[in-house]
Structure formats: C-alpha cells, structure tokens
Amino acid sequence: ASGGLEALPGWRDLDGLRSRLAFLRARRIPRPTGRGSTPATGMAGSRDWPDLSRAAVASSLSHWVPPLVAGAAHFGRDGEVTRFGPTPAQLEAALLADLGFEDRKALGREAPRHWRSPGGKELPLVYGAVDGDPASVLLRVRLQLLLGIDEHPALRHTPITVELLSPAGRPLQRTEDLPGFWRGTYAQVRAEMRGRYPKHAWPEQPWLKGHGGTR
What we know:
This protein is of the alpha+beta class. Helix content is 30%, strand content 15%. A 5-stranded mixed β-sheet has the order 3-4-5-6-7. It contains 8 helices and 7 strands. Strand 3 and strand 4 form a beta hairpin. The radius of gyration is 22 Å and the shape is elongated. It folds into 2 domains: 2-110, no CATH class; 114-193, no CATH class. The chain starts with a helix and ends in a 22-residue tail after the last helix. The longest helix is centred in the first third of the chain and has 12 residues, at 15-26. It has helices spanning 2-5, 15-26, 54-59, 61-70, 88-95, 101-110, 178-183, 186-193; strands at 73-75, 81-84, 114-116, 122-127, 137-142, 161-165, 171-175.
C-alpha cells in the first residue's frame, strides 16, 4: 500500500524529484534515451520519464525493493546491526536506476530545481503546486527581486507561474504575465505597499532597469 512508502527512509525527501518527473510526463517532454526499464513501471525501453507516483511505485515494490533491502543493513564498530533499511540516497538511486547521463542532464535542464534571477540569486521552483496541476511550475519571489525585468520568467517549454511576495514574504499576487502585471495591477499593489514598506523600492515604472530592492 502507498502508506507503507512513508516508512522508507527519504521517501518524503523525494517529493520534489517526484514532482519534477511528473511535470515532465505531464508536459510530454521526451527523454533523450529510453534504455532499460523503469523501476516503477517495468516498461522496457520506455521513452517516458519514470512514473514515481505513489500508486505506480507501490504497485511495483516486488521489482525493486528486494535487491535494495538485501544490502540495507548498517553495522556498528562492534559488528552489530545499528540500522536496517536503505539510505535516502540508495532509495533515490534505485528509483532512478534507468536514467542515464543524458537523461539526468535533461532533467536538470527541462525541470530545474531553481530559477536564477538576473542578479544571480537562485530561487526554488515548486512543481505541481498550482491548483494541483502536475504540468505547472511555481516561483515564489519577493517583488523587488524582479524589478527591472520586463520578460516573464519561463523554463524552456513552460511559462512559470510567479507568486509575487511582499518584503515580509507574504503573497501579493500570482501572474503568468509579468510585463502585463507591471503595467496593470502593480499600481494598486504599489499604492498599498509603499506606505507599509517605505525602505523598499516601489518605482512607478518597475520594468525599467536600474531599480534597487531597497532605498
């Protein structure tokens, strides 16, 4: 049962990876290679990315768990077993055993963990978080970090849903059209926020380059 997966060390740590793979599948972005078989589906030579949904992984436990558990005993200095069970790294390796070098490069390219701002700051991306849509990707970012940007953030194949945050990290608005936001409802946001956060920049034309995040 899928509930049993929670007992596996590192299962929860794989939520981000599982969401990234679900994103690639939902967007029908092809894998560079399709050799071997995926642990979760057992589909030999599949061109699809591995399905690491709870249902798929739970239905194929008998395929990939036994060899993983066979080497999962951890011994102390006195030779006694100190812990039994795969490490999070071993679990991830088992689930992704089918991904070759080119696949892993494509995963990082097509579904990166972070979006890099023009200023070089890396901000985490959250996949599947917009209305439960696995094909969605969300960027939560303080509004001031996007000042001077007049092009909507996007991945190679997908526009990013941007959740703009106040200087305190509270949500202000979500948009898939940053230039449109700057020239539209930003004026209302600016009117409400600049009195609360006077030390931060709230320029009248935020799409122009050269604005700092704070005064």
